[in-house]
Amino acid sequence: MSDQVTLFHWEPNANSGKPMLALAEKGVKFDSHYIDMLNFDQHKPEYLAINPQGTIPAMLHGERVLTESTAIMEYVDATFDGPSLMPDDPRDRWRIRWWMKFMDQWLGPSFSMIGWSFFVGPSVRQRDPKELEAAIERIPLPERRTAWRKAIYNLFSEEEIAESQRRIGIGINMLEEALSKREWLGSNQYSLADVNGFNLAYALPLSQPHLSNDEKTPHILEWLRRIYERPAVKATWALGRTDMVKRVTILEREPQA
Ligand SMILES: N[C@@H](CCC(=O)N[C@@H](CS)C(=O)NCC(=O)O)C(=O)O
Questions:
Q1: Neighbours of 20 (CB within 10 A)
Q2: How far apart are CA 55 and CA 67, in angstroms?
């Protein structure tokens, strides 16, 4: 089997950023294919031939096709040399998987709803309505079709947004508490939980300044800044193209006087 790694990804953010950063942390060279999500590249036949669900990311390793961002990260960590992103201790592994499940299933969708409502929708809304409708019709998964419709036509209800905000508030408190007990999120070493968490939370001080700031959540801020300083993060975020990911520079430390 060829060892070639190809990653189809959008911005280093949420789901795409997870395997991008895991590969960078392991020092794995990969062929990067930027899928412009705002141009609906993920629903074009050439990409559907790789992932018929029309979602990103997807990774090719030789002949293998891998989907699901968190599962791809675990594959990357287990397959390639380089620093381990999963400790050996079963309790640490449990905690890391606990956090990843919590983020992927419960907290992440709330961040996503806010992001789609404030960034994705407004980024495409002004395009030709007929083209947009045709683009929506081409989306393979009904739930993604619904998400696009809500984003484009601004149909997220006040209740939905309020519920997402509520969950983000709870998630921030949980992160702050966990990070006040140990240096990293899931164990005493930097792990997949931190990679996952950074992708979700890197812009918190900008997107939720009233809930996450140096006074209210000092441990979260220090954790984000420490991760931001890693060379793998710098290399990964340099692959971003939109203003959304440029927000990461909020984590730059103030120069010491
Ligand atoms: N559970 C999947 C979710 C993948 C997913 O929904 N990705 C979003 C981007 S963050 C996507 O592909 N959206 C494209 C679309 O909805 O058209 C994973 O973690 O890989």
A1: 32
A2: 9
- Backbone dihedral angles phi then psi of residue 204, each to the nearest 5 degrees: -50, -45
96 within 8 A of 81, measured Cβ to Cβ: no
- For 129, counting Cβ atoms within 10 Å of its Cβ (0-12 exposed, 13-18 middle, 19+ buried), the class is exposed
Closest-lying ligand 1 atom to the alpha carbon of residue 148? 16
Rounded to 5 degrees, φ, ψ at 148 are -65, -45
Is the pTM above the cut of 0.70? yes
Q: How far apart are the first and last CA of the chain?
A: 55
Answer yes or no: is the C-beta of 196 below 6 A from any ligand 1 atom.
Answer: no
Give the pLDDT score at 164: 97
Cβ 69 under 6 angstroms from ligand 1: yes
Tokens of 193: 């939980």
pLDDT tens, position by position, 150-189: 999 999 999 999 999 999 999 999 999 999 999 999 999 9
68 CB under 6 A from ligand 1? yes
Whether the CB-CB separation of 196 and 18 falls below 8 Å is answered with yes
Q: What is the pLDDT of residue 37?
A: 96
Which residue positions in the chain have pLDDT lower than 70? none
Residue pLDDT, tens place only, 91-112: 999 999 999 999 999 999 999 9
Amino acid at 80: F
Decide: 13 in ligand 1 pocket, CB within 6 A: no
Cβ neighbour number for residue 33 with a 10 Å cutoff:
17
